[in-house]
Amino acid sequence: MSESAFERVKLARDSKRPTGLDYIKNIFKGFIEFHGDRRYADDPAIVGGIAKLDSTPVTVIAIEKGHTAKERTYRNFGMPQPEGYRKALRLMKQAEKFGRPIVCFVDTSGAYCGISAEERGQGQAIAENLLEMSTLCVPIISILIGEGGSGGALALATADRVWMLQNAVYSVISPEGCASILWKDSAKAETAAASLRLTAEDAKSLGVIERILSENDIGKKEFYDRIRTLLTEEIKELSGDIDLTQNRYDRFRNLGVSAVIKEHSCNSEITSIE
Length: 274
Hints:
alpha/beta; 274 residues; 13 helices; single chain
């Protein structure tokens, strides 16, 4: 790995990276966007609707940051409000009703943590997504395309398959936030990033994700074509899984188990050598 963990963080935050809408536009056909959570409002930070993946109808949901300052302000810099997560859940329940696979694109530093969001039940909205996604009877694939920040990302990543782009990151907290808590100094973010194990390679080694997607041709037609092919193949395989929800449950129950076993083995070897 040539880049340091903090360099990966900076790459994940780059405004020139493709956003959720870029993936929707270039991978799917006939996208129709749906709005609103039917409770409070619409949230521009989460875009969702129906589309076709080749010939297969799917529900697509993406956390959208935008590229320009104006777009990022409108999208709240990709930090969803409670109504965004409730809109996503509404679309996922609709997908289950009509038997449509679900594809999610995740790119957020975290859920919006303002007072207004807390008053409208931000924590509850995220928790409900985790609970409901774990029991949906249709295939779910989530792809981390930039930042994957804490529960705000996990609320769209409780999936059968979770993939990450090569320079995406996935963590319980930002390096700056971690440094501020541990050392009362956000300037130590680079040190924190190295300790958080937030890179795609780290996530793969811990069993948190199944696949790392190369960024060698990011943004080019070949890049999107490759992801479309992988999604088509994976959805076809998952659609034939009669134990889909049980396997999804087992996937999350077993997170980190292989890493613990590996660490225990290493400790045993050290003990025996001593």
